[in-house]
Specification:
The complex is a heterodimer of chains A (about 300) and B (about 450). Chain A is mainly α and about 300 residues long. Chain A folds into two domains: about 1-40, no CATH class; about 60-300, MetI-like (MetI-like fold, Orthogonal Bundle). Chain A has 15 helices and two strands. In chain A, strands 1-2 form a two-stranded antiparallel sheet. In chain A, α4 packs antiparallel against α12. Chain A is globular. Chain A starts with a helix and ends with a helix. Chain B is of the alpha+beta class. In chain B, the strands form four sheets. Chain B has a four-stranded mixed beta sheet with strand order 8-9-7-10. Chain B has a three-stranded antiparallel beta sheet with strand order 3-11-6. A two-stranded parallel ribbon of chain B has the order 1-2. In chain B, β4 (about 145) and β5 form a beta hairpin. The longest helix of chain B has 23 residues, at about 420-444. Chain B is globular. Chain B starts with a helix and ends with a helix. The chains are: A mainly alpha (about 300), B alpha+beta (about 450).
């Protein structure tokens, strides 16, 4: 390698740039380009069909007094508050169970089953759950009835619609987070647990003093991935409730979509999207900061 | 090193290919700009091409329409390209296509869609093409006149939402078909009861479904709201379209009456769509009344679908007047059409009696012209004869989609008890009037 670098020093310098050129080009064109485009267009009156007209910060000012935007923002944050803790706690618990039983038949089966909803397209999952919860299927009615729940009332009630959407989202993506947490759990050396057992630590102590601290970077990653995906949740909501009833499950993405393609107000829709972008960016930066801090603590 | 150089070359080649792919060819651009790609341009063989976009109008629109196009295509030396755009991506497809200059020459739009496209100049006012013969011949041409122009040429209409009733339930109650709100309310009250004595109400007055998840926000307005509003003498906009009128006294009374009727509805009415409610509640004989979008073939279809239900219908109840919603979906002449006369000729051809007679023989629908005979079940014919003035389309106004979507949401809030009638209508009114104020300020 050293010889080659000496013989062709120019090529060695250029090579890394060539390797990253394709993905950089894709990112710049489709990701950064569209973000910049969206920011610019959010300062315009734009209906997609005609030329955009610059109107300064009017869209952003209008957002501040838009009752639908405020409701959508509250719903979006509500969905995050609902999904992230449950998804994290349940994800870790299920992963611990799966890792502990990974050599048993039921453990292997559960490992596969938990991932099935992830493979299913969100739109399909939305339609399936909508059908399950519309009161037409007697066995589903009876099953929910055991818990005192009338499934046919869940999506039609403004108080329960968002919670139901959140539960379906948790079900849908649980497998994804279980995979992440499982890989984190498998990376913890067994010797730590063996040493703890020798010292007389029980299962709960092992979990709290070994598993949780060593899994913390993975949990932080899981939390932020879960936050980002909850903030962007669209297909499920669109197919489960369409944002209703009375906008009770309209999130920022659903609202931006309806403004863009329903009302033809793309400039305003971009302003909504940019607010969401800022929130997600803040979440990502926070995650990076926390991960860095964690790494420095470990080192 | 050779491997490294080779991989660098490959990567460079990939990058160049990718860049070229993003750029598009000059020919493509020219094609879009000169309209050939999207309009009444020419195919490679030099034949004129007319692009027509419609939603699924029947189970095989391309073939059902395409098979009847031969004469017109031959006469005009033009190939008609029919594209069926699925409903779930309908507006999205139009807006994105028009943005990239790939839209059709002749489009198909429902009333709520028009304002956005009229404002954007994407559709053409066809007033200049309307002849006295058209005025005399077309039954619903006036429904395509909106925002001071003939932007729509009605194609699918005559399927109003009507009130079906269960003849057996009404007979048990010694009642006949309701005519007024009082009749309707009285029968609903009497019909809502526990019929098997288990202590639970299992028969309802009014089968309703106000969920919009799978049918779209406008549908609950179409099915339930407009009829109450219009029957009580209300309307959506004020006549000058500067403000909305739905929260006035008539509008408030109408919604209050509907809200009162919820006590006679199936308890899961907020979770079902209007069509599900009709099928699973009224269709199973569990309700005295149900609302459904009528069709000329309901007599035949319902006999198969709901064989145990003896039914009939009233087109509209009466309070201060009659009224129920009948969609007027129209063909429209897109501004991008290169040969506007040709596109207009096509619109008149497919909506004309000769074409429609053949088409409706395959796929029954309401006659669009006076010379086209009624095709369908005898039972439903009164909608197009005696009751023709009891149903109509929607008043088209600016910001229609936004205003009606918010109204639909607030209407849901009112019906579910989350909002009071006053607060719900006020919220919808304020939202609408703010939008209209901004719209008209922009216009000035």
């Amino acid at each position: 390698m050293m010889d080659m670098r000496k013989k062709h020093p120019g090529a060695a310098k250029v090579a890394p740039y060539c390797y990253i050129a394709p993905i950089t080009l894709i990112l710049v064109t489709f990701v950064i380009g569209s973000v910049i485009g969206s920011i610019i267009l959010s300062f315009t009156k734009y209906n997609i069909m005609t030329e955009p007209i610059f109107q300064g910060s009017k869209n952003y000012v209008k957002l501040m007094s838009d009752i639908k935007f405020i409701k959508a923002l509250k719903n979006t944050l509500g969905l995050v508050v609902l999904i992230v803790p449950l998804q994290t706690v349940l994800g870790v618990v299920i992963s611990v169970f799966l890792v502990a039983n990974r050599h048993r038949f039921l453990g292997k089966l559960a490992n596969s089953v938990v991932f099935i909803p992830v493979i299913c397209a969100p739109a399909v999952a939305g339609v399936v759950w909508r059908e399950l919860l519309n009161g037409k299927i007697e066995i589903v009615e009876k099953f929910f009835g055991l818990f005192g729940i009338q499934p046919s009332m869940l999506l039609g009630n403004a108080r329960t619609a968002l919670i139901t959407v959140g539960m379906v989202a948790i079900w849908k993506w649980m497998g994804y987070y279980v995979v992440i947490y499982t890989s984190g759990l498998l990376a913890i050396p067994d010797t730590y647990y063996e040493a703890a057992k020798v010292d007389g630590a029980g299962k709960v102590r092992c979990f709290l003093s070994i598993t949780v601290p060593l899994l913390r970077p993975t949990i932080i990653l899981g939390i932020f991935l879960s936050m980002a995906s909850s903030l962007q949740c669209f297909d499920l909501i669109f197919n489960l409730t369409g944002g209703g009833p009375n906008n009770a499950s309209t999130t920022l993405v659903v609202y931006a979509y309806s403004k863009c393609f329903g009302s033809g107000d793309a400039g305003y829709a971009m302003a909504i999207s940019n607010i969401l972008f800022v929130v997600i960016l803040a979440v990502a930066l926070l995650q990076r900061d926390m991960m860095k801090r964690k790494t420095s603590e470990v080192s | 090193m050779k491997k490294k150089l080779l991989s660098m070359l490959l990567i460079t080649a990939m990058s160049v290919t990718f860049t070229a792919g993003c750029g598009g060819s000059g020919n493509d651009t020219a094609k879009t700009e000169d309209g050939a790609a999207s309009g009444s341009g020419s195919s490679e063989s030099g034949e004129k091409v007319l692009d027509v976009w419609v939603p699924p109008l029947d189970d095989d629109t391309v073939n059902n329409w395409g098979g009847l196009m031969g004469d017109w295509e031959e006469e005009n030396g033009c190939k008609v390209n029919i594209t069926v755009v699925p409903w779930d991506k309908y507006e999205e497809t139009y807006t994105t296509a028009l943005n990239s200059g790939e839209g059709p020459d002749v489009g198909y739009m429902y009333n709520e869609m028009f304002p956005t496209y009229i404002d954007a100049g994407a559709v053409t006012d066809m007033s200049g093409y309307v002849t006295d013969e058209d005025k005399a011949g077309y039954k619903y041409l006036a429904n395509g006149f909106m925002m001071d122009g003939q932007y729509g040429w009605p194609l699918v209409t005559g399927v109003p939402f009507v009130l079906y009733y269960n003849e057996e339930i009404l007979a048990d109650l010694d009642e006949s078909a309701p005519e007024t709100w009082e009749d309707f309310e009285r029968i609903c009250k009497a019909a809502t009861k526990d019929t098997d004595g288990d202590g639970e109400i299992d028969q309802f007055g009014y089968a309703c479904g106000m969920s919009t998840s799978d049918v779209g926000a406008m549908q609950i307005l179409n099915a339930y709201y407009y009829s109450a509003l219009w029957q009580n003498g209300g309307q959506i906009y004020e006549d000058d379209l500067k403000k909305v009128a739905f929260a006035d006294e008539a509008g408030t009374e109408a919604v209050t009456w509907l809200k009162d009727m919820t006590q006679y509805m199936n308890p899961d009415f907020m979770s079902l769509s209007w069509s599900d409610a009709f099928a699973t509640v009224f269709g199973e004989g569990k309700a005295a009344f149900g609302v459904y979008r009528s069709s000329q073939t309901d007599g035949t279809v319902f006999a198969e679908t709901y064989p145990d239900v003896k039914w009939d219908f009233v087109t509209s109840l009466k309070n201060k007047g009659f009224g129920t919603f009948g969609a007027t979906d129209c063909l429209t002449l897109m501004s991008a059409a290169e040969d506007q006369d040709l596109a207009m000729d096509f619109i008149k051809y497919v909506t004309g009696a000769a074409f429609m007679e053949q088409y409706h023989a395959k796929c029954p629908g309401a006659a669009l012209t006076n010379s086209e005979p009624y095709v369908g079940d005898e039972k439903m014919e009164k909608i197009y004869t005696d009751d023709l003035d009891k149903w109509h389309g929607l008043q088209v106004g600016p910001c229609g989609v936004d205003i009606l979507t918010q109204l639909s949401a607030d209407f849901q809030g009112i019906m579910s008890g989350e909002l009071s009638v006053k607060d719900g209508l006020k919220e919808a009114e304020d939202y609408a009037n703010d939008l209209l104020a901004e719209y008209w300020a922009d216009k000035e």
